[in-house]
Amino acid sequence: MDRFFIRLFFPTAILGGILLTLGTHGVDQMFVQRILACRSESDAQKAMISSGIFVFFQFVLFLSIGVLLYFYYKDPSIPKDKVFSKFILEEVPSPITGFLLAAILASAMSTLSSSINSLSLTTKVDLKIEQFGSGTLSLFWGMILLLSSLLPLFLTTGKKGLVELGLSISSYTVGPIISIFLSGRIQSFYYMQKLKDSFASLAIGLTPILTLIFGKWTGSSFTLLVPFGIGTCLLLGFSLLQIQNRLTSQK
């Protein structure tokens, strides 16, 4: 049973990877905005399928580079997050180093611009904060992301890499997002739509906290936190619906 909670246990890695991908490349605001920019539903479907194929080969490339670096550097004392940068600085010729840095910056800017746009849209439309313009909100979230980019310097303990740390943080919030999506697509979970705003907010807000407690208590990997978050949010929603119905019947 202990193997079920250890890092990179194959069955939980497959399950958690599928659900995490559903959250980041299916119902995430940033990805949805890109899909809505397509001309038609068929174009959006083609874009999602093409993205999945591209990401698959992209991760094959990343993992292959990691395996090669593992065999190239056999010194376990080198921090995992500094192996690739060490290789670029010490082994790659100068012209190619410049192209690699430019590619890394271009990729980061593309993702950050989409993230800032998504956060600004959510703030303006969903949170009904309309007194500020789009430029002001974009500047605000840009500064927040700039400051949050410094957090890994204080959060990393040497045992986890930045990639695993980032996936762990996202796994705390992906569960409620997927739960909301399932409540609109699967009839068995339609009861979530009957919750009042206060009860729905409570279920969605408590889920990341309980997921964090579960992860710290069991020491499980981020791949197991995603299904736990989904199940917790749906269970909280069902329990709060019973309380809501009982309170309504007493009036």
Automatic annotation (TrEMBL):
Asked whether the keyword Metal-binding is assigned, the reply is: no
Q: What is its main location?
A: membrane
Spell out the Pfam families in the cross-references.
Answer: SSF
The molecular function GO annotations come to: symporter activity
Membrane topology field: Multi-pass membrane protein
Residue spans making up a coiled coil are none
- Which compartments does it reside in? Cell membrane
Q: Which residues form the signal peptide?
A: none
Q: Where are the transmembrane segments?
A: 6-27, 48-72, 92-112, 132-155, 167-186, 198-215, 221-241
Q: Name one GO biological process term.
A: sodium ion transport
Q: Which GO cellular component does the record give, naming just one?
A: plasma membrane
Q: Which UniProt keywords apply?
A: Cell membrane, Ion transport, Membrane, Sodium, Sodium transport, Transmembrane, Transmembrane helix, Transport
The family assignment reads: Belongs to the sodium:solute symporter (SSF) (TC 2.A.21) family.
What name does the UniProt record give this protein?
Transporter, SSS domain protein
Record the organism. Leptospira interrogans serovar Australis str. 200703203
